[in-house]
């Protein structure tokens, strides 16, 4: 299929998705009020309530003394699995409002904990902590389905009814300090997870890749890592959720890059496109050894470039055949999430390629939902046939016609595009 035909088809589909998305709308204030009513009904007089927890959260503030919590969908226990971030959210087609609603329905019952040692006297290593709050949290993280828990709280949740732009920009659930936690059932733990737990000499990277090869998705692995359940026994510790997500994306990405090191190259220039939640991704695969670059273009009025008068913001990071030795400078977790989606595709088809990913963040992206939407949008970009171009330069110029930048603008930011020969049309209108 030619690139211009592919773009026309995609444009029609995008218009339909936008029309359907506008049919959904949730009032922030109403959602918070509904949560309070559900919480008041669920909590007993001694501030103890029973729920079903699908996931955990470990904060990064004040590291290594962090807030570590159990997430519970108050009033939605029978649908607890729908509140856990996963690729199923993309399949379901959740919108930004949907994400906000689900996250504000999750009560984060948390305690302040050292990431290495727990207990009142800090005498128990995280590795050995199978009792108390941290022990229950780990049981939730390693189980393969939501777990029944009973949580004792020290007071009511913190619910801010003075909704500001910050609340809209960062949708998080109400928080409450937990006094205690107990399991309401024996969680079911998959055999591969038990194996990683029992091997105290297994480095975290090897354990992550083992679980991935056994069919665990990165969402499950980062939860297990975050709970301090992977790595050599003496080195195990709680890992802030935000860090664990990127660590797993990076580790699995490096493993997948290893699977394509000696594979043949793609034999033509291929272009794929996908759009979700106001983020459009163009993926260009070109013949050659592995090389990867992510270029982000953030529209004024979008969440990461909120000033409508600020002009377009561009950022980029890249790597060559041997990968990177340090963390990226400009694109943060999106770099590793997008790279994972590309490498999964290349590993599946047994090919390697030069890869350019162009991300356009429009002003429809009014609230950050997390890098899962980057990962899933790129993963699903390869579901269709895509388009072909004669050369890498033709592909870049063709794609740029549908971006808010000229090829010359892109050349100044992208190492992969900078080598293209310039022509007059590259400067745009």
From TrEMBL:
<keyword id="KW-0227">DNA damage</keyword>
<dbReference type="InterPro" id="IPR006978">
    <property type="entry name" value="Nre_N"/>
</dbReference>
<protein>
    <recommendedName>
        <fullName>DNA repair protein</fullName>
    </recommendedName>
</protein>
<feature type="region of interest" description="Disordered">
    <location>
        <begin position="160"/>
        <end position="191"/>
    </location>
</feature>
<dbReference type="Pfam" id="PF04894">
    <property type="entry name" value="Nre_N"/>
</dbReference>
<dbReference type="InterPro" id="IPR053546">
    <property type="entry name" value="Nre_DNA_repair"/>
</dbReference>
<dbReference type="InterPro" id="IPR006979">
    <property type="entry name" value="Nre_C"/>
</dbReference>
<comment type="function">
    <text>Involved in DNA damage repair.</text>
</comment>
<keyword id="KW-0234">DNA repair</keyword>
<feature type="domain" description="Archaeal Nre C-terminal">
    <location>
        <begin position="319"/>
        <end position="427"/>
    </location>
</feature>
<dbReference type="Pfam" id="PF04895">
    <property type="entry name" value="Nre_C"/>
</dbReference>
<dbReference type="GO" id="GO:0006281">
    <property type="term" value="P:DNA repair"/>
</dbReference>
<feature type="domain" description="Archaeal Nre N-terminal">
    <location>
        <begin position="20"/>
        <end position="305"/>
    </location>
</feature>
<dbReference type="InterPro" id="IPR033167">
    <property type="entry name" value="Nre"/>
</dbReference>
<comment type="similarity">
    <text>Belongs to the Nre family.</text>
</comment>
